[in-house]
Amino acid sequence: MLRGFYTAAAGMMANQRRQETLSNNMSNAYTPGYKADQGVMRAFPEMLMERMDSASIPTSHGTKLPVKQTLGSLNTGVYMQEAVPDFSQGDVRETGVGTDLALINGRLPDEDGFLFFNVQNEAGEERFTRDGNFTVDGEGFLTTNQGYYVLNNAGNPIQTDNMDFTVSEDGQLNVNGQQIPLGISYTANATDMMKDGNGLYQPGADADPLVNARTTADFQIQQKALEGSNVDPAKTMTEMMNTYRSFEMNQRVLKAYDQNMEKAVTEIARIR
Fold this sequence. Notes:
The protein is 23% helix and 35% strand. The chain is of the alpha+beta class. It has two domains: 2-83 and 232-268, no CATH class; 92-227, no CATH class.
């Protein structure tokens, strides 16, 4: 009975974590460049069940020997192992704002490859993003809306001198006749990238370093446009409802086990 109790509780916890992931996706349905997280559900390791028994040996003393009979495997529950971002391209929409840039994937050498803008976080470390909703700060540097510097191909912040600029399709930023190549990086396996908050990504501990996309992959920069979130609100809402129903089912099973345990303690063992 206790085994079923813990199995139902594990199901509730897994569905709660998945619901939190889906809720976060829904809240970022209109965040530029956001990549939806997909919850990966896994089962706990299976246990081999055996029945302990004894067999009588036809001797004068009635000897008995212990024997085991294999009953089969038993799964003890489920858990959400991790949340993996879906790196599919989001819809591109025009905004008419000159500092908005959309990074559009072209021909990539690897099926799981992906492209990112290079930025610098508040600690001065290089990070990567798909959010092209840029702006120009008071010192004339091109930054993200969170204040992170957008980097050029050499890894330095881009100075615009507070002047209007244009960006070509190949990522060349033209400021008063000066050509500044935007920093665009490529990873062969996007699933190695970890979210770092505020739309930023960084390679995982065992991931290969990102490389210069200009020597590896094809891409296109569209100025006055933004790549939207790849969250499908209707699909996400349906998944949230299904997850909630699954949570309720496990909750009812848990309640039934609790009631049976209460009867076992208060009624079955009662002395009349």
